[in-house]
Amino acid sequence: MKTPDRARLAALAVTAALTSHLAPTQVGGEKASAGRKLTFTSNGAPVSGDPADLRLEPDQRIGVTFR
């Protein structure tokens, strides 16, 4: 059996942590209040749709902004 590399393990850990409470209006226990907005980016490009569907890749940079 092949041993997963550290980047893959880190990506799996992040995915597990985020997808338990990840939605267009929520990240973990943090929710966007009325009139506020959450935006997601992947390598600087806006992410549309459900951010839980975002597939993690090596060296990917994901941004989450509350506005």
Automatic annotation (TrEMBL):
Residues 25-55 are annotated as: Disordered. It comes from the Bacteria. This is Copper resistance protein CopC.
